[in-house]
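request received
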Amino acid sequence: MRVEVHVTLKPAVLDVQGKAVQGALHSLGHDAVTGLRQGKYFTFDLGSTDRAGAEAAVKDMCEKLLSNPVIEDFTYELQESA
Amino acid sequence: MRVEVHVTLKPAVLDVQGKAVQGALHSLGHDAVTGLRQGKYFTFDLGSTDRAGAEAAVKDMCEKLLSNPVIEDFTYELQESA
Amino acid sequence: MKAAVIVFPGSNCDHDAVHALREIFSVETHEVWHGDTSLPSDTELVVLPGGFSYGDYLRSGAIARFSPIMDAVQAHAKAGRPTLGICNGFQVLVESHLLPGALLPNRGLKFCCRVIHLKVDGKGSPFTADIGEDEVMTMPVAHHEGRYHADEDTLDRLEGEGLVAFRYCGPDGSRGEAHNPNGSLRDIAGLMNPGGNVLGLMPHPERAVETVLGSADGRRIFESLLAAGRRAA
Amino acid sequence: MSTETPVKRPGEPDVDLGLAREHGMSDEEWGLALEILGRTPSFTELGIFSVMWSEHCSYKSSRTQLKRLPTTGPQVVHGPGENAGVIDIGDGHVAVFKMESHNHPSQVEPYQGAATGVGGIMRDVFTMGARPIANMDCLRFGRRENPRTRYLVEGVVAGVGGYGNCMGVPTVGGETTFHPSYDGNVLVNAFCLGVAPSSRIFLGTAGSAGNQVFYVGSRTGRDGIHGASLLASAEFDDTTESKRPTVQVGDPFTEKLLLEACLELMEGDAIEGIQDMGAAGLTCSSCEMAGRSGAGMELDLDQVPLREEGMTPYEIMLSESQERMLLTAQPGREDEVVAVFEKWGLPVARVGVVTGDGRLVVKHQGEVVADLPAAELADKAPVFDRPREQPAELESRWELDVEALEQPGDLGATLTDLLASPNLCRASWTWGQYDWSVRTNTLSPPGGDASVIRVKETGKGLAISADCNPRYCFLDPKEGARQAVAEAARNLACVGAKGLAITDCMNFGNPERPDIAWQFAEAITGLSEACIALDTPVVSGNVSFYNETEGKAIHPTPAIVMVGLMDDPTARVPSGFREAGDRVVLLGRDQGELGGSEYLAVVHDRECGRPPRVDLEEEARLGDFLRSQADVGRLRSAHDLSEGGLAVSLAECALHGDDGLGLDVELTGDGFPQRDDVALFSETQARALVSVKADDVADLLVAAGEAGVTAMELGSVGGDRVTIRRDGRSLVDVSLADLRTGWEGSLPNWVEGA
Ligand SMILES: Nc1ncnc2c1ncn2[C@@H]1O[C@H](COP(=O)(O)OP(=O)(O)O)[C@@H](O)[C@H]1O
Ligand SMILES: [Mg+2]
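response:
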C-alpha cells in the first residue's frame, strides 16, 4: 500500500511561511498569487494490503505524529502498490 | 485557477527529517512503514484563467523559488476554480 | 579597505559583522539595505551576514537571494572582489548559485549552537592565505541548516580543485563525526569559488575576534584578507 | 459627557448574566459592569470587560499582596506598572527587564506556546525603547516518566530557541527542572533584558487629546480569542481540548522587523507612547494607554489590518494575534511613522485618535460598538483579598528523622547518581539549541553561576541569574522565596557582580483556595524580606494563577531573575576550576540541613523536612566577601553551593567546561555534620567554593576572618578524579569521566532515547 499524507495548517491559523513565500512571489512579479498556504507532504509504503487496517493505521499516525491536531488538519490517500 | 505544488527531495538526497519521522512511527508501533519521505506542499490561487499562461507562471515560480533544483524536484497541478 | 555589510530583513548578525570590522579592524564599513540597488562606490569587501533573512522561511537564503541588492552583489563577486557569506550569508550564496550545493537541516534536526574547531583546506584564497595548514581554529556555530550537500561528482570536483576552504575537526585537528556539528558531507564547513574571492562558511568568525569572547581565532580570516588587500595595493 | 449606547449587531447574542458567566465573570463583576455603564453592555463591551477583568489582565487576586513588595530605591527608574522594569546602570544607560509566564499555552501547544511567550516578553522590553540583549528561560516539567513530558520538553525548548534565535537575541541562561507537580501543567517563564539610553525611555501612555493612534505589526486574525487571558484564568480539566483552537502562532521574523522598525522610529521623537498588544490584544493596549494618560481614545476598527474576512468587532478587540503594537504620535508626525514601518515592510494604519473625555469609544462600519470609561476598565477591576489558611498538613511535611535514613554504602555512587538526576544534570542539551553567542556580548556561555553580558555602550557588564527551588517553596513558601533571592544574589556574587534589582514570575495554583492564597502571601513576604535585606527591589513581574490539573496545584513557584552590575565584566570569575595546583576553599558553615534536599528526593524518594534556613545577613556578608576577593583578582574560580550540597558543587567545579580538572579534598575537624551523607549533601545556604593560587590561600583566609566569613581550606585542584576524604577515610573517589558520562548524558539520552 502506497500512502500519501497532506498536513496543512487549519485555515484560521496564521501561516507565517506561506505569508513570506507569497510576498516573495509577488516581488518576483507573480502578483496574481493569493491565499498561499504551505503544508507538509509525506509519502511512504505500508506493507499491509488490508485496506481497512491500513486506513486505521494511517489515521492513527496522522493524529499522533504526522499532524499536530492543535493547529493542523490532515488528509490521506491510499493506493495499492503497483 | 487553483494551484497545488509538491516539492520533494531528490531521491539521492538524504532525507533526515523523513528518516526521523519514520523512526518515530516505528516506535509508535507502526513498523510496517518504509521509504518515508517528507516534502513540502503549497496551495494558492492564481487569478488568471489562461491555462498556458498560468502553467508557465507556476513553472517559473517552482524553478526560481519554491524548489531548489540542486536538491529538490517539483510537480504541480492546476485546476479551474469552482 | 572599505566594506559593505548587507542588511536583509531578518539578518541578525549584521551588527556583529559591523562591530568586528569597524571596532576591531578599523575598516570603513557601511550597512547596505537589501532594497538598495548599488553598493557604495569602491566597496572592496561585501559581507552577507548571519541571521534569519525572511525568517528562513521556505529554505534558508531562498528569498533573500531575490533582494534588489543581490544583482550588485553578484556583479561584485563576479568581478573577482572579496565576498564573504557567514552562516545565513553562506546559505544566500548557495541559493544564489555563487557557490555550488545546498545547505540542509542539521543531522540532529535541531538548532545547534556550540563552539567548534576547524582547519583550512584547499588551494588558498585571500581569506585563508595567512592561515597555516595545521592551525586549528575555534569559533561558534549557530544554525539550523548547516549540513552541506552536493552530489558525489560535485564533491569530488570541489576537493579536486581545492575549493573546500574549511573543514570541521577536533581540538587536535583530527576529523571525525563527533566533531562535525551538523552532518555536513566531507566535514565541509566552508567553501570558496574557483577565483577564491567568494567564501561561504557556517561558523562565525565575527563572533570570535576578542579573547574575552572565548576565542579570537576568527581574526585570522579577517587579518588574512586585510593583508591580502595590502599586498594587492 | 455624551456617551452613545451601542446598537446590537446582527448575529450577536443577547447579553445577560448568563453570557457574562460564560465569559468567566462573577455575578459581582457583572453588577459592577452594569453600574459603571448605567446600562447593559453590548456584546463587544462584555468581551472587553471580561478580558480586562480576567485574572491575567487585572491581577485582581494578587494586587493587594503585590503592594507589599519593595519596589523603590535609588537604582529604580521605573518599577512595576510599566511594560517592564527599568533600572539605572550608570553612564547614561538603563537596563530594562521583565519575566513573564506562558504556562497554559505551552501545555496546550509546547512549541508555539513557548515561542510566543518569548516573543511577548521581548516586545515588553523593546516597547520601552530598549534593545533586547539577553533572554533567559525558566522551564519546569513533570516527571520524566510521564509519557507526555518528552514531547513537552522537545517542543518548549525548540520553541524558545526558534523565537529567540530568529530575533538574534542570545538566550544565555535559565532553569530546566522536573517535578511531579508539573505533570499536567508545565511552567514556561521567559525573561528578557534590554538596554537603552536613559534619555530615551518610552512609556505606554496615550498622551494628550489629538494624538494619532497607530496600529503597527502583523495583521489581526482570530488567534487566541480568549486565549492567554482566559486560559490563564481557569484551571485545566478535560475541556482543555476544546480551548485548543485559540492557540496563537508566533512569527519571529515579523517581530524582528517590528523591533528594528520601532527602535528606528524611537531615535526620533515622533512617538508619544507605545504599548505592545499582548494578552487581550487591542482591548488591553488601548484601555491601558488611555487609562494611564487619563485621556480617552476613539478607535475605528475598519482601519485595523485584518488577516481574515468577516471579523466582528468583538473578535477584533479580543484577538491575541502576535507581533502587534499600538502607538500614539503627535498630529503632524503621521508620515514619519508610516515611512519607517513601510520601509520595514510592516502593516501600519492610523486606527484612531486620542480624545479628552476619558472614554474608550470603538467604531465599526460607522457604528459605535463600545463606549466605556477607559480608566475604570483598567483600574476599577474588582480586587480580592482572598481568604488564606496555612495547609493543615504543612507541619507534618516538616517531619524528618535523619537518623532513621539509611546511609548509602557507596557515597561515590550516590554522587554519580545525583549528578545524573533530572534536576542536577547538565542542561547543555537545552542551551545547545539556543543561540547564546549572537551579539558578541556573552562573556560566559550558559552553564555558569550567573550569565555575564557586556554592555558595549558603557563597557560595563550585567550579570543575571534565575532561581527558585519549588520543593523548598512547597515545604515553606516564605523561606523558599527568601532562598530564591538569596541564591540569585549568591550566583551573582560568584561571578563578581552585585545585584541591583529583581523581576519575578509568581506561578501558583488556584488563588480561590485558601491554602494557595496562603502560599502566595507567604512567598510575597519572603521575597520582600530578602529583597529589602539584599537591596534588590522588585521592578517588574508577573503572576500566573490557576496552575492546576484536576484540582491538584503545582508546587508554589516564585521564580525570580536578579540583574546585577559589574564594572569590569572581563574580570568575571568562572565557576569551573582553572589550573592544577590551585587550592580549594569552602566559604560558609554547614548547618546539616537535609530538609527538602535533592539528596532526600533522589536517593530516599522523600520530600519533607524544613528547607534550609536563609540567613540574609550572612548571605550579604558572603556576597560582599566574594566581590571583594574578585575585585583584588584573588579568585580563580567561584561556585555557590545549592541543590546537592558540597559534593555536587565540588563535582560541578571539576566538571565545568569540556575538559575539566579533578580535585582532591579532605573534610577535617568538627566543621561538618556528623553523618557523612549529611556532610556531603546538606543544602545549607550562604556557602560557596572558591579556588585560589596556593600562594593566595593565607591572604584569603585572613580576609575571610576579617569579613566574618567562615573559610576552610579543603584541598587542591588537579588530576582526573573527584576525591573527597574525611579525616583520612575515603568518602568519594570517582573518575571525572564517569561523573561526566551521567551528568552530560542524562538529559539528551532521556529525550532522544527511544
Ligand atoms: N533552559 C535553560 N536555558 C538556558 N540555560 C539553562 C537552562 N537550564 C539551565 N541552564 C543553565 O544551566 C546552569 C545550571 O543551572 P542551575 O542548576 O539552575 O543553576 P544554579 O543551581 O547555579 O542556579 C545555569 O548556568 C543555567 O543558566
Ligand atoms: Mg547556583
